[in-house]
Request: fold
Amino acid sequence: MSVVSTHRVSGWGNTTPVRARLVDDAELDLSSLGLRGAIPRGLGRAYGDAAQNSGGTVVRATGETIDLDAATGLVRVSAAVSIDELLCHVIPVGWFVPVSAGTRFVTIGGAIAADIHGKNHHRDGSFGDWVRSVRMLLASGDDVVVTPQSDPELFAATCGGMGLTGLIREATVQLIPVSSSQMVVSTRRCNDLDAVMSTMVDAEDTNRYTVAWVDATVRGASCGRGIVTFGDHADEASGADPAAYRPRSPVRIPGPAVPLVNSVTGRMFSEMWYRRAPRSRDGETMSISGYFHPLDGVDRWNRVWGRRGFVQHQFVVPLDADDVVRDALATVAASRPANFLNVLKRFGPGSDRPLSFPMPGWTLTMDLPATAEVASMLRRLDERVLAAGGRHYLAKDALVPPAAVSAGYPDLERFRSVRDRVDPNRVWCSDLSRRLGL
Amino acid sequence: MRDASGGVQNIVVFGGTSEIAVATLAHLITPSTTTVVLACRDVAAGQAAAESLDVADTVEVVVEHWDATAHDSHQGVVDAIVARVGDIDIVIMAAGVLGNQDTLEADPASAVSMIDANITGPVVTLLACARQMRAQGHGHLVVLSSVAGVRVRRAAAVYGATKSALDQFALALADGLSTDGVDVTVVRPGFVHGRMTAGLPPAPFATTPDAVGAATAAAVRRGRRVVWVPSALRAVFAVLSLLPRPLFRAIVDR
Reply:
């Protein structure tokens, strides 16, 4: 019997729990890892198996450094610091993170490892575009500072590298200036997918942030109807303290998990969500958390999917392959699984980072129950995604086969050659890397 | 590794020529599956079973020599499989022989090979697999038991006793593995039409290899500890187990 105690570890989707050893990064001993290696983990918001390592070690990030140069907006920050903590620190002095995902409960390390994108990708790119340097622990035991100049290949492989190039300890990130903690948001309700897409394209020229919620619970011509929101940071905020940033503490979904989402509640919610949106509204003032992180208002919202868990399937297809998006929504509408959250976004230019997800095109995210029927539906869909030259987001994935990565990420060999150089024995590995043969 | 929908990459069958195991594979193999290992004593029959599997080109089917009675070799066979395929996601223990009670009673020593094949060999191999899965931090052991082991009847005294032992062993093993991320499913079919039972009069609630396979695959996906096939047998044996012995004998040993 082993004497090392293990813990249950799973992704945010709660689909593939495994046992692993948990250690803090300060106590990590690279020489004692054994054959199954280690993977860094932040707040566990990766949906699939990216931040778990069955039978091996999962390294929890620690560290609290936030060292902001208030004149330039350059911040030196520990990998373990969450976007939430960073925002609390920098918004009152007029700075904001350059890229926000749908949750503020991701760490800086995780944001770099997944090369996260936000509603402003068409204009500002992904998180890696704003990282100026990374201090990381390599498999050799060396603690190194990597910049795009000092080691371009390692830097590119680390941004989007899913933690497989080394343990990120600290990063220097360029923030963007804001003059308030409020957003000015416009809303358009569009009765079909064409209207959603053209509204988004039009809004991109003049708005920093655009995104759409789309409905996959109605069939026929209305399938893909949705609500487009776009906006920017408010120049002049109303209220006593324009820079106040105090997100409300979340309401917790009590355990044990009870599945609240099914095809009926999903359809009801979608109908309600669509109808309560204004046909057209401009100049609405919203808080940063209300605009960027609505789901964070509910702690452990993943529990609404019950014990079986869910997949958040996200793919991107080139701009001219928008029919794949249409088919995806129609496929979901036809087979009626539990579903209410689908997000559509148009990406701007991609990067040269080998495992970075964004590329120019349409990206669709769909939350679906983790059933065998949904899996086979998504597999048929994925063939179309790959045939169109698209790819899948590894931070969300726990479903695609290895061939989907080699097809979707043509620079995979570049990533492997960086790992061959800095980690030939694959000290850093995860269930994701094992499953996909990264 | 397992994917979000419960589909697995690598499946290993011990007793790879078993009809029930082959039928179960048909229900367990998904597009995520990359390798199926059929470990069996008769490699030629294993090849035939491999060819009978209707799988996509992306699935590699490997036949390995494994003799349930050659206990000393079992750890080596498991190690070789791991070296070849990596993590084992599911093990199906399907080895076993039915034997004939009258023959065993006429030649008592012949019971040894049957006991070896039905309980000694499976236990040794399952222990080796459990050790591997504990190290992996995940995995699923599927053990083919039988209702014959739930309450053993005279006409299948040795067979029933071996299945009873295997069933109890598997359940106890499961208790020890539950905190290691390893699941165990014990399958208790009734009379199954097939090669093993050819020529025997079918018992009530008789079923087919395919029905057992479908129920087993469903139980694996749901992580159920025990599955009865057909499910009505659970209630039947709840009653049979409580009957006074003379009454039980009168009912089952007619």
Notes: The domain at 182-400 of chain A is CATH 3.40.462 (Vanillyl-alcohol Oxidase; Chain A, domain 3).
